[in-house]
Design goal:
Length: 174
């Protein structure tokens, strides 16, 4: 999320974060938001159909014509396959996948720090543990999916925010 926002400014293309869209819908109390909230509060993934509805709307919007930075999406292989198909229909594709590699203890430390600052209800120790399990089971297989397309760049996610941002920019030739 942090690096996506910096990159969005640097490249002047919008960032879409499915987590932010879901939290806004939950705050507004829409039917979609109420449904999503029950999953989010347990550290589980929201069903793919809900997510793909959100993504389709954003990706096909005029603001996305020069591209988008996707944060927190895709999280499952079916989401990746669906977005590949959606983009291909418009003659587009996923160009780059940035794999920001952070040791697990450090991730937990950062999430607990964020909980203190932002008060995200899914940043409790139990939910964080569950989210890491979900990551390993449902999201990690995406690395192989995108490696097969030759578009993955691994970035060490340790160091300062600035150092990581510079590594990302360099990997994209910016
Ligand atoms: P995030 O803000 O990206 O950490 O997402 C917070 C929560 O929103 C996740 O733990 C999931 O419950 C849900 N979520 C966000 N993005 C997705 C996605 N692409 N697929 C499924 N669930 C998602």
């Amino acid at each position: 999320g942090t690096q996506g926002a910096l990159l969005s400014t640097r490249l002047a293309i919008p960032k879409i974060a499915t987590g932010d869209l879901l939290r806004a819908a939950a705050r507004d109390g829409t039917p979609l938001g109420r449904k999503a909230k029950t999953y989010m509060e347990q550290g589980l993934l929201v069903p793919d159909e809900i997510i793909m509805g959100l993504i389709e709307e954003v990706v096909t919007s005029p603001g996305a014509r020069n591209g988008v930075i996707m944060d927190g999406f895709p999280r499952t292989v079916p989401q990746a396959v669906a977005v590949d198909r959606l983009l291909a229909a418009g003659g587009r594709r996923v160009d780059h996948v940035l794999l920001i590699d952070v040791p697990e203890e450090e991730l937990v430390r950062r999430m607990l720090g964020r909980a203190a600052q932002e008060g995200r209800s899914d940043d409790t120790p139990e939910t964080i543990r569950q989210r890491l399990v979900v990551f390993r089971e449902q999201t990690e297989p995406l690395i192989a999916h995108y490696r097969a397309q030759g578009i993955v760049t691994a970035i060490p996610g340790t160091g300062t925010v600035r150092e990581i941002a510079d590594r990302i920019a360099a990997s994209l030739g910016r």
